[in-house]
């Protein structure tokens, strides 16, 4: 197996060991972000270990982008932000594409701009949801997905 954090997280899902798992779709997995500094933060992990959209076969790529849009709409509906930020990343350990969805609200960062200005604060363990909060986030996102799928 490659040294890939996203592949590792997908393996946890397949082995029923990922508490952040929300739902499997045809092209990826919906998960709640580990740290909830930005409430409702969620991700969509591509099932294929690729670094770029253009490396995907066209039919899979089109389905992946469609499902990404559905997941984004569900995040928006579930968490009712002022604005939803989308990011397709794949750098870091493993180079595996995955979408980040940040439900943004006025004043959620010290100054306007991307969430990454928060630096390590985004990964501060005080923003790990407890079991009840995590279940509520997953329930809300699943309910929003149910309405769209």
**Low-confidence segments:** none
Rg over CA atoms: 15 Å
**Termini separation (Å)?**
32 Å
Major pleated sheet: 5 strands, antiparallel
User: How many domains make up the coordinates?
Assistant: 1
Mean pLDDT over the full residue set: 95
By CATH reckoning, the class would read Alpha Beta
What is the 3D form? globular
Number of helices: 3
Keywords:
3 helices, globular, alpha+beta, 5-stranded antiparallel β-sheet, HIT family, subunit A, 5 strands, 149 residues
Describe this structure in words.
With 149 residues, this protein is of the alpha+beta class. The chain has one domain (5-148): HIT family, subunit A (2-Layer Sandwich). The protein contains three helices and five strands, in the order αβββαββα. It has helices at 5-14, 58-79, 131-148; strands spanning 21-24, 28-32, 42-46, 83-89, 98-104. Strands 1-2-3-5-4 form a five-stranded antiparallel beta sheet. A hairpin with an 8-residue loop joins β4 (83-89) and β5 (98-104). The longest helix has 22 residues, at 58-79. It is globular and about 40 Å long. The termini are far apart. The mean pLDDT is 95.
């Amino acid at each position: 197996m490659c040294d890939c954090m996203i592949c590792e997280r997908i393996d946890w899902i397949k082995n029923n060991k990922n508490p952040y798992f929300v739902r499997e779709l045809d092209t990826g997995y919906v998960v709640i972000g580990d740290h909830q500094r930005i409430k409702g933060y969620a991700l969509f992990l591509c099932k294929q270990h690729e670094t770029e959209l253009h490396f995907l076969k066209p039919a899979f790529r089109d389905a992946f982008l469609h499902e990404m849009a559905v997941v984004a709409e569900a995040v928006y509906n579930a968490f009712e932000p002022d604005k939803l930020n989308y990011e397709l990343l794949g750098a870091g350990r493993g180079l595996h594409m995955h979408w980040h969805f940040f439900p943004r609200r006025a004043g959620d960062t010290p100054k306007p701009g991307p969430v990454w200005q928060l630096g390590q604060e985004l990964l501060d363990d005080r923003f790990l949801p407890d079991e009840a909060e995590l279940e509520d986030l997953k329930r809300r996102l699943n309910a929003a997905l149910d309405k769209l799928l």
